[in-house]
Amino acid sequence: MNQNTVIEKLGRRLRLGVIGGGSGSFIGAMHRQAATLDGRFEIVAGALSSRPDKAIRDGELIGLPLDRIYTDAMDLIREESVRPDGAEVVAIMTPNDSHFIYAMAALDAGLHVICDKPMTNTLSDAKELHKKATDSGLVFCLTHNYSGYPMVRQARSMVEQGELGTIRLVQVEYVQGGKADENDPVTDDVVPWRYDPIRGGPSLVMGDIGTHAHHLLRYVTLLEVQSVSAEIGAIVPGRKTHDYAGALLHLTNGARGNFWVTQAAAGVENSLRIRVSGTRGSIEWHQEVPQRLEYKPLSAPVEVRTPSGPKLSPLAQNASRIVAGHPEGFHEAFANIYKDASEAIASKISGTSPSSLSATFPTSYDGLLGVMFVHDVIESSKSGGKWVECQSVDLVTDN
Amino acid sequence: MNQNTVIEKLGRRLRLGVIGGGSGSFIGAMHRQAATLDGRFEIVAGALSSRPDKAIRDGELIGLPLDRIYTDAMDLIREESVRPDGAEVVAIMTPNDSHFIYAMAALDAGLHVICDKPMTNTLSDAKELHKKATDSGLVFCLTHNYSGYPMVRQARSMVEQGELGTIRLVQVEYVQGGKADENDPVTDDVVPWRYDPIRGGPSLVMGDIGTHAHHLLRYVTLLEVQSVSAEIGAIVPGRKTHDYAGALLHLTNGARGNFWVTQAAAGVENSLRIRVSGTRGSIEWHQEVPQRLEYKPLSAPVEVRTPSGPKLSPLAQNASRIVAGHPEGFHEAFANIYKDASEAIASKISGTSPSSLSATFPTSYDGLLGVMFVHDVIESSKSGGKWVECQSVDLVTDN
Amino acid sequence: MNQNTVIEKLGRRLRLGVIGGGSGSFIGAMHRQAATLDGRFEIVAGALSSRPDKAIRDGELIGLPLDRIYTDAMDLIREESVRPDGAEVVAIMTPNDSHFIYAMAALDAGLHVICDKPMTNTLSDAKELHKKATDSGLVFCLTHNYSGYPMVRQARSMVEQGELGTIRLVQVEYVQGGKADENDPVTDDVVPWRYDPIRGGPSLVMGDIGTHAHHLLRYVTLLEVQSVSAEIGAIVPGRKTHDYAGALLHLTNGARGNFWVTQAAAGVENSLRIRVSGTRGSIEWHQEVPQRLEYKPLSAPVEVRTPSGPKLSPLAQNASRIVAGHPEGFHEAFANIYKDASEAIASKISGTSPSSLSATFPTSYDGLLGVMFVHDVIESSKSGGKWVECQSVDLVTDN
Amino acid sequence: MNQNTVIEKLGRRLRLGVIGGGSGSFIGAMHRQAATLDGRFEIVAGALSSRPDKAIRDGELIGLPLDRIYTDAMDLIREESVRPDGAEVVAIMTPNDSHFIYAMAALDAGLHVICDKPMTNTLSDAKELHKKATDSGLVFCLTHNYSGYPMVRQARSMVEQGELGTIRLVQVEYVQGGKADENDPVTDDVVPWRYDPIRGGPSLVMGDIGTHAHHLLRYVTLLEVQSVSAEIGAIVPGRKTHDYAGALLHLTNGARGNFWVTQAAAGVENSLRIRVSGTRGSIEWHQEVPQRLEYKPLSAPVEVRTPSGPKLSPLAQNASRIVAGHPEGFHEAFANIYKDASEAIASKISGTSPSSLSATFPTSYDGLLGVMFVHDVIESSKSGGKWVECQSVDLVTDN
C-alpha cells in the first residue's frame, strides 16, 4: 500500500497556493481534496477567483487567513515566492487559456507547478512552457488524473513487464453525455468559458476529455502515436465547437489504434475505457468500475485484478490506501497524482531522488504531446481523413 | 413469446435440403439445429461434403436415407427440385466462394434459399445474385444471425419508435481472439479455405465478422453507411490476409459512426458490441451477455431490458421462447432467423403475407450491401484514409 | 465439446413418448426441444393433454401421426411398450401429483423414464418409486436441468479435483418474482394445479424451485445435507401455500450452509445462485449469466471460467456445443440432461457402459433425497427452528 | 450534491481529538481522512497509541504539536476538555474493549463522541453508555460507515417513500475471506486483540462485520429485528472465536429475513450485500460496486440508480461530492458519517437544528441494538436454533 517516503524524511507538509477553483467549480474541490488527503500538502494561500469579492469569500471558506487570500493570481505568485513561509508550489485550476500565463510566472518565480489539463490552448504556448519547465529544474505536474487509478497503473506495469507481449491493437474511448442535450440553455450569448474557443481552446471535446484519452493510451502502452487519420466536428446541430472526434492510429511500434471521444452521447455518464491487446493477452479497464482490471491471456482463463488484491505490481500497490474490496474512487486516484508530485517536489527540496514508484505522473512533456495531438487530429480531419505524421514523433525521438 | 402463424396454417414442416456443414463444421450443426428447433423445417436431403465418402457418412449421421444423400450439391438441387416430396428450400453453408454458384442454381431450380454470410466473394457475383433473387420471387435469407437476438430486435424497435430520438452517434465493434496466436500452425502450405483469398474472399476479417458488424449497425439503426474513411490490414506479422479493420463512418442521416473489427485480440472470445446514441438516449448491447440491453435515457435512470421482461416491443417478444430470466443464446437467435424465413416461405407457398414481425430477416439486398461495404473499406484504406462515398448509396436511393 | 459416443454406435435415435406438456405448457416445449436438439431422440408418440380434443390437436401440432396420439397416458404406456417400433422411453411433464402413477406404470412396462421434478408429492411415493426404479434396471432420469449448465459442471469438477480444498461454507438461493404480485388473480376458486396442495405437492415453493436449489447444492459440492434448521411459510397475506423458505444447513463433512428460496421477490426474474467456499478458494455461479463461473482462489486473482474456454474439465467441455463466446442457455443445459440420459439408455440397449462424462444426470435417488428434504424443512419449521437430522442420511450411508 | 449548512454558518472547523489509530491501523487513517475530507474537522489533539513512544511519533507524523500529543487517552479527554482551544469532539478508534471507558469519560467531560463499532463488548456496558449518551445531550456517533454510501441512502429513501411497497423479504450478507487461511500464523500465543474475546468481544465475526450487516438491514428497511433463529460458530478447525453466523429473521412488520456473515470465505474480498423485496419491487446493493443500486419494480424494467444520477432522493444527493460517473468509494462514504456528525455537533454548539438530511447517522441507540443482536444470535445458537425474541424489541417500543 501507499507509503510515505521522501516527504516523511522532509518531516513537514509542502506549502501549496491554489489558483482558481472557487465555489461552483467541481475541479477546484477535487484539487484541494487531492492535495490534502494524504497529509502531504498544506494549503497556505489562494487566489480562488478573478472576482475579488468571490476570491475573498471562497478563500475564507477554505480556511485561509485574509493575508494569504489574493484577488489576483499574479500577486499570489509574486508575494508567496518571497515570503519565508510562502507557498512552494502552486496548483492552477483556472480556465484553459490562463494556464500558460500563470504557469510561466510561477516557474519564473521559482515555484513548482501542478496544472490542470490541457496544458495550454495553443501549440506555441505549449512548446514555450515545456521549454521553461524543463530548463527551470522545477517540478511541473499536469493532472491527467485517470492515470492515478491503481488498476491503470497495474495495466501499465503489465505492459512494461511484458505480460501482454508485443502490443498489437489498442482501443481507447471517452464517451460522456454531458453535452448531449440539444435543449441545453448554452447559447452564443451566454457562453461559459468552455464553449469559447479563445478561452476553452480550439476543441472543446479534445481539451476536456480527448487529451485524457490520449494520455491514458500513452501511459498504459508506453507507446507514442506516430500518425493519425481522423475526423472531428460537432454532431449537435448549431454547436460551434467540437463535440466528437474519431481517429485511427498508428503507434510507434507499428500497433494499430482506435480513438473515439464525445460528450454528446445522451445518458452516458463518464465512460473512459481502454483495451490493449498484445501477442500474449489483452487487458480491459473501464473508469466507471475502476476497481477491476480484466486480463485475458492468450490461452488461460480471464483474470480480474483488484486494488490491494493478489499479483499486483509495486506501482499499483503503491496507489492504494486500503485493504482489498473497499473501493477507492476518483478522489483517491486524483490524490495519487498529487502524492507523486509531492515526492518529486520534496526530493528537489531535500536534494534526494524520489522512488521510481512516484515517477510516472504526467509532466509538461505529456502536456505538450497532448496539445500536439489535438492539432494533428484537427489537421487530419481538415484534410479529409488523410494520414498525418504526428509532430510529436520528432520530440519523442529527441527525448 | 414466439408464436406460430403462417406455418401453422400450412399444417406441415417445410422440406429442407442442406448443402455443406459436414462433421467438423461448427456452423453446420448450428444451421441444422436452428432449422429444426421450432419444428418448422424437416431436413429431407443433404450434400454435406464435397468428399463423397464424407458426404455419405455425415448424411447418415444426421438421419438421412441413402437416396436423399448427395455427393454433389448440384445434384441435390436438380433432383430435389423435381421430386414431388423434394426439398423446397436449400440451406447453403459451404466455403464462401461457392455460395454464388449453389444459390444461383437453387433459385434457377425454383428453390428458396437460406445462405450463410458473406453472400459472395466478389461484387459482380453479389449484384448478379441479388438481381436473380429479386427477379425470382423466391425467398433468399442470409444468416446474419446476430440480428436474431431478442435484445437486438428490441434495440431496433426502440430506434424505430423514436425512443432514442434522432440517431447521432454509433459505435460498432467485433473483436475476437481466434487468430491472435502468432504461433498458430496455419501457413501458406496448408491453408484452410478461410485463409485463401480466392475461396475465403478478399478480406478474411471482413468476410468472417466485419459483414456481421455492418449488418448489425444497419439492422439496429435503420440507417445506411453513406461514406467511409478506413484502414484495413494484417497486424500479425507475415499474415497475408486482413485481420483487423477500422473505419469512421457517415450515416445517411448525418450521424457519425466508429467501426472496429479484428480477430487478433488475444484472449477475447466473441465480443460483438453495439452502442447507439440519439437525441433522447443511448442503448448498449454486447453479444457475450446477450440477455441484457441497457437503455440510457437523456435524463432518467439507466434501464435494463431483458428477454420476456417488461416493456418489450412485439418484435422482441416474438423472438423469445421462454419466460424471463431463463437465458436463451446463440442457438435460439440463429433459430429466429430460420423461423422468420419459414414464415416468408410458407407465405409464398400458401399465397398469404407473413406478419411484419417475421419480416426483418436479412436478404440478398443486405448481402449485396455487405459485399459493397467490404470493397469500400478496402478502397478507402488503399487511398490512404480518404473518405469514400459508398456504392450502396445509389442502391439505397433506388430501392 | 459435446461428443456422440454410445448413441452413435447404436446408429439410430431413441424412440420417445411424451406425456403431458401440451400447448400452453412452458416446460412441455422445453422437454421436446431438449430431447431433439442433439438428434438423439425421435418423438414417436404423445399424450399431451388429459383433455382428449386438446391431446389430439397438440399431438398433431408437434407432427405426430394420429395413431400415435393418445388421450390417456396409460394407453400410451401400454400400447407403445408392445409395439415393435414403440417408444423405448417416456418423458413425463404432467402436474406433480401424477408423476408417480405414470412413472410406476412406465417402469412396469419396461420403459425408461425421464421425469420432471419434483419426483413425487409424497415421501412414501418417492420411496416406492425409487425402489421400483432401482430394481427395474431401467434408466430413471429426473430433470433437475440446472445441473446441465456447463459452468455448473465445471464447478462440480473443481470441487471433485480438490481445487477448492475442503468445503467449508455454501450459500444456495433461488429467488423469483413470479408469485410476488398480491393482486394476482389466482384465488381459491380458480387455482391452477400448482396452488393446489394435492396436485402441486405439500409446498409450492419447495416443489417448484427448492428442490432445484437442493439438488444444485448436492451436485456441485458432492456433499449431503445432514441436518437442517428451517422456516417455511407464506409471506403474501392470504396465500395458502408456501412462497418462501429459509434454512441453515450442516453438510456431511461438517460444512455449514445457507439456503434461501422464494417466489415472492417482486421484479426478480430467475435468480438461482450458488457460492461454495473451501480451504483453497471459492466459486460463484449465477443462473441469469450462466456463461460465467467465478473462481476466487485463496491468494491469487479471481478467474472467470467460460464454456469452451481454457482450463475446463472434460465434464464441462462435454456440455458445450459451440466455440467460446457464443452463449448457450437454458435450452442447451436442459438438452444436456437428455443427452446424458440418451447415453445411459443407449448403453442399456446395447449392453455397453456410458462414459463417466454422461453419468452425472439426476436419478430417482436424487428425487427421493429432494422429497425427503422438503419434508425435513417443513418438520424443522413446525418445531420452531429446531435442528432436524435429515432422513436422507441413512439412505446416503446405505448407498 | 453535498452541501455545507450549519457548519458553514458556524464559520469554523470543529476541533477533534483522536484516540487510537496509530501507524499500522487501517481504520485510523480512514477516520482521520473521513474527518478532514470535507474541511469540517481540524485534528487538534491525539492519543494515537497506548505505547508512549509510538503515541508521540505517530502524533508528530500527523502534524500535531507536541503539547497536544497525549500518551494516555484519559489525559487527552481531561486536558482538552478544559483548554479554551481544546477538542470539542473525540473520535475513538481503539480496540473494542476500551470504547466504553473512553466514551464514558468523554461524555462526562462534555465532549461529543465519534466511536468505532461495535459500541461495546458487553451488553451492560452498552446499556450504560447509551443511557449516558442520551442523558448528556451530546452527540454520539457510531461509525457504521457503510450507511454513508450514497446508494445505500437512496435505498433507504426509496423504502421510506414507499417505492418498494410493504417490505416482505430481506437478505443481508457480509462475506469476507480475510480469516480463511487455515495456515494463518495467528495462534493462541500471539493473538492480536481481535482474537482475544475479552478485548475483541464475545464474537469476532459479529463484532467485526455482523453488526455492520445488522445496521445496514435496519438502516435501509427502517424495520427492526423482532426474533431470530440462528447458528454461530467457528468453521476453521481449532479456531476459538466465531468466524461465521447464519440467521433467519422476523422483522417488526412481519417481513422475513436471511442473515449470513463470515470471514472464512477464501478469496472473497469484502462482499457486503443487501437485497430487499416489497410488494412493489426489489432493490439490490453490493458494497464491492457501491456506485450501482439496482431497482427491480414489480412490472417494469430494472433501473440502475447511480450517485449524482437522475431520480435520486435529497438524502442520496447530499451524500455525493462529484458529478455522475466519477466513482466515490469507501473513504467518501466514511466521510459522510463524519459530515453528518459535524452538522449535529455544530447545531448543538450554535443552538440550531441540523437538516434532516444529516440526521440518519448511527448513534448509541443503534450501537445498543447491535450489541443486543449479537447476544440474541448467540443465545439462539446455544439453544439449538430456537426462535429468540429480540431484547431490543422493548427498547424499540419504548423509543
Strand and helix layout:
The structure is a homotetramer of 399-residue chains.
Chain A: H1 6-10, E1 14-20, H2 26-36, E2 41-47, H3 52-61, H4 73-80, E3 89-93, H5 99-108, E4 112-115, H6 123-136, E5 140-142, H7 150-160, E6 167-176, H8 197-200, H9 204-221, E7 225-233, E8 244-251, E9 256-262, E10 270-278, E11 281-286, E12 293-297, E13 302-305, H10 314-317, H11 330-350, H12 364-382, E14 388-389, H13 392-398
Can you describe what's shown?
The structure is a homotetramer of 399-residue chains. In chain A, the strands form two sheets. A nine-stranded mixed β-sheet of chain A has the order 13-12-11-10-6-9-8-7-14. In chain A, strands 2-1-3-4-5 form a five-stranded parallel β-sheet, with helices on both faces. Chain A has helices at residues 6-10, 26-36, 52-61, 73-80, 99-108, 123-136, 150-160, 197-200, 204-221, 314-317, 330-350, 364-382, 392-398, and strands at 14-20, 41-47, 89-93, 112-115, 140-142, 167-176, 225-233, 244-251, 256-262, 270-278, 281-286, 293-297, 302-305, 388-389. Chain A is globular, with a radius of gyration of 21 Å. The first copy, chain A, folds into two domains: 6-145, Rossmann fold (3-Layer(aba) Sandwich), CATH 3.40.50.720; 147-321 and 363-398, Dihydrodipicolinate Reductase, domain 2 (2-Layer Sandwich), CATH 3.30.360. The longest helix of chain A is centred in the C-terminal third of the chain and has 21 residues, at 330-350. Chain A starts with 5 loop residues before the first helix and ends with a helix. In chain A, a hairpin with a 2-residue loop joins strand 10 (270-278) and strand 11 (281-286). By secondary structure, the first copy, chain A, is of the alpha/beta class. At the A-B interface, strand 6, strand 7, strand 8, strand 9 and strand 10 of A face strand 6, strand 7, strand 8, strand 9 and strand 10 of B.
